[in-house]
Amino acid sequence: MIVLRSRLELWLRRWWASGGQANWKEVIVSVLGGLLLAPLVNLLPMLGYDWTVRFYPGAILFNTPWVNWVVAPFRLLGVRESLAVLNSIMLVTVAVATAREANYERRELWVVALALFTPPIFMVMWDGQIDGLALLGLFGLPWLVPFALVRPHLTVWTILSRRNWTLGAMIFGALTLLVWGWWPANVLGGMEFNLGHPMAMGWARLGWPIGVLGVVMLIFAGGDMYRLLAAGTVAASYLMPYHFLILLPSMGRVKGWRRIVLWACAWLSLLVPGLADPTQYYSTTFAHYLALLYPILVWWFLRNTKDRWLSPRDA
């Protein structure tokens, strides 16, 4: 109890001192860069099943209701063109976030190529998922909190680490309840369906000890952006391999063998779809557990590094 109390007091001091400012330069570069890159990305092989069937038509079952609002601008384009823009913005956002973690040092920018050449990138592009928008939203907090919260079970702990971000999320959360009513019931109602997916991970699928480990990681993550994201990933009740995309930029902050280890561990996520039986719901393999080594090592390797998501005013 003494440890918990001391960690809570430390968190409160950091929360109050760190207002949390939006990084608009990164947002603008990510969006404009994504728009410019889209024609080239459109030439790549992308099935985009979830984008085509769920997000683009607006039939977004078991997701937070504002996701439909976030993706609405993409519907101004055709389904294939919008998928290309979605994926290109994701690629540039990951690249910019990774370069930021490397402090934009020229000799370190090769790590951007490492981050982009990983299975979570391929999975998000092939499936047409929106995790890149969550990472983009983190750049623009608190104003882009609807984007960051398209993956609330992963990003909420990070949002709670800064005063302005927390207040922005509270205001936005109250507005969502006024507009859509008690929407959490719909999200929770789809949990059984989501957990039945052959690739689903998370403690609700793998067992409560995984959740306990995630909570311990959260307690000792401090206010570090990526340590909180990593801890939140392990603590999540529902997790898919492509959700690891938001952790990829953390490779930019570490150097040497740790960077190579993180990159190699990111590839462990490929074992989950590779070994999962698509005909057996709720079944697990050792790969479901092994893949969690990636967020655990992100959390561990970043423990003595500088959080580059702090703005100059907060540092």
Explained architecture:
- This protein is mostly helical.
- Helix content is 60%, strand content 0%.
- It has helices at residues 2-17, 24-41, 49-55, 67-70, 79-101, 111-116, 119-127, 131-139, 145-148, 152-159, 163-180, 184-189, 191-195, 203-206, 208-219, 225-235, 257-266, 271-275, 286-290, 293-301.
- Helix 2 crosses helix 5.
- The two termini are 30 Å apart.
State the low-pLDDT regions, or none. 311-315
Specify the number of helices. 20
If you average the pLDDT, what whole number results?
Answer: 90
Q: What coarse outline follows from CA principal-axis ratios?
A: globular
Number of distinct beta strands: 0
Query: What is the percent of helical residues?
Result: 55-70%
Structural class: mainly alpha
Instruction: Profile the largest sheet.
Output: none
Task: Quote the beta fraction.
Answer: under 5%
* Cα Rg: 18 Å
Features:
mainly alpha; 20 helices; 0% strand; globular; 315 residues; single chain
Short description:
This protein is mainly α.
Would you spell out the secondary-structure blueprint of this structure?
Elements: H1 2-17, H2 24-41, H3 49-55, H4 67-70, H5 79-101, H6 111-116, H7 119-127, H8 131-139, H9 145-148, H10 152-159, H11 163-180, H12 184-189, H13 191-195, H14 203-206, H15 208-219, H16 225-235, H17 257-266, H18 271-275, H19 286-290, H20 293-301
